[in-house]
């Protein structure tokens, strides 16, 4: 697989034509084979890119311009449809290639299981890695209906790989009783809120390498209805932007990030992908040093 090969017909706004010169690489992971409710997030990456054309290049939050950022949009990965295990291998191998080339990976999902092979690859390079997970759902099951490869299991897998105290969860408001118990006992677990506990936890992380994974369904469905498992009682897009900026202005060394679970078919207004595109702009400008 060529790391500079674009497979989709559109790119994120102001993407460079040069993989070699880029510091960051945006790539899509169009997989939604294990979702437990509504499929459709495999179309998320392409629609986020399309929505990005409506963005201003300038971020007044960070006083930075996307025209000054050198990044490459590699398009969507070619994944074997319906084969979750093989698709995860393709994603992991691709990200390892990016890291070998000293690129900053920015992933567009896809269901949340796609973050698992990325975290594995990041942990191989950064053994002192921490993960910031912002989501409505705990994703701490060890299996779902007997299937360990599920969009409800990636953070449990990450905790078992890295140690739960290297995982920081925010905004969780849905999960089984067992997941909440596991989170409170094993994870830096902060249900319901995002910005306030994040502000408390960031200084504890110091300057360690951090991977940030955000599920769009942390937002209230009134802000982002286009997702597979919408959950009432979420935060606003303003609060999520605040969280991204808190991370960007902290001392942590963000080494990669992703945004997952945008399912455009459930949002004819396109507000979900519009929000997602802005979040990607802010992560690109705030996280890539």
SSE diagram, text form:
Elements: E1 24-29, H1 44-52, E2 58-59, E3 64-65, E4 71-76, H2 84-100, E5 104-109, H3 115-125, E6 130-134, H4 154-162, E7 167-172, H5 177-186, E8 188-191, H6 195-205, E9 209-215, H7 237-248, E10 253-260, H8 271-287
Parallel strand pairs: 1-4, 1-5, 5-10, 6-7, 6-9, 7-8, 9-10
Antiparallel strand pairs: 2-3
Summarize it:
It is built from eight helices and ten strands. With 289 residues, the chain is an alpha/beta fold.
Question: Can you give a write-up of this model?
Answer:
With 289 residues, the protein is α/β, with parallel strands linked by helices. The chain has a single domain, classed as 3-Layer(aba) Sandwich (Arginase, Chain A). It contains eight helices and ten strands. The protein has helices spanning 44-52, 84-100, 115-125, 154-162, 177-186, 195-205, 237-248, 271-287, and strands at residues 24-29, 58-59, 64-65, 71-76, 104-109, 130-134, 167-172, 188-191, 209-215, 253-260. The chain has an eight-stranded parallel β-sheet, with helices on both faces. Strand 2 (58-59) and strand 3 (64-65) form a beta hairpin. Helix 1 (44-52) packs across helix 8 (271-287) and helix 3 packs parallel to helix 4. The longest helix has 17 residues, at 84-100. The chain starts with 23 loop residues before the first strand and ends with a helix. The model has no long low-confidence stretch (mean pLDDT 95).
């Amino acid at each position: 697989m060529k790391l500079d090969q674009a497979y989709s017909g559109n790119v994120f706004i102001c993407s460079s034509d040069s993989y070699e010169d880029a510091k960051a690489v945006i790539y899509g992971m169009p997989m939604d084979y294990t979702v437990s409710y509504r499929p459709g997030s495999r179309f998320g990456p392409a629609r986020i890119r399309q929505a990005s054309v409506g963005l201003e290049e300038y971020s007044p939050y960070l006083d930075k311009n996307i025209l000054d950022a050198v990044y490459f949009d590699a398009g969507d990965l070619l994944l074997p449809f319906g084969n979750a295990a093989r698709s995860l291998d393709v994603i992991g191998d691709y990200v390892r290639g990016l890291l070998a080339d000293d690129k900053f990976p920015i992933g567009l999902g896809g269901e949340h299981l796609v973050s698992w092979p990325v975290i594995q690859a990041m942990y191989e390079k950064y053994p002192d890695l921490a993960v910031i997970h912002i989501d409505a759902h705990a994703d701490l099951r060890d299996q779902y209906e007997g299937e360990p490869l599920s969009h409800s299991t990636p953070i449990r897998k990450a905790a078992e790989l890295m140690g739960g105290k290297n995982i920081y969860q925010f905004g969780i408001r849905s999960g089984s009783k067992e997941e909440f118990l596991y989170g409170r006992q094993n994870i830096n677990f902060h249900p319901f809120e995002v910005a306030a506990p994040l502000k408390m936890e960031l200084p504890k992380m110091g300057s360690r390498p951090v991977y940030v994974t955000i599920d769009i369904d942390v937002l209230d469905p009134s802000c982002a209805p286009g997702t597979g498992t919408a959950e009432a009682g979420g935060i606003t897009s303003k609060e999520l932007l605040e969280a991204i900026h808190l991370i960007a202005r902290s001392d942590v060394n963000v080494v990669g990030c992703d945004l997952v679970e945008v399912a455009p078919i459930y949002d004819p207004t396109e507000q979900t992908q519009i929000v997602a595109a802005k979040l990607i702009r802010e992560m690109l400008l705030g996280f890539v040093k």
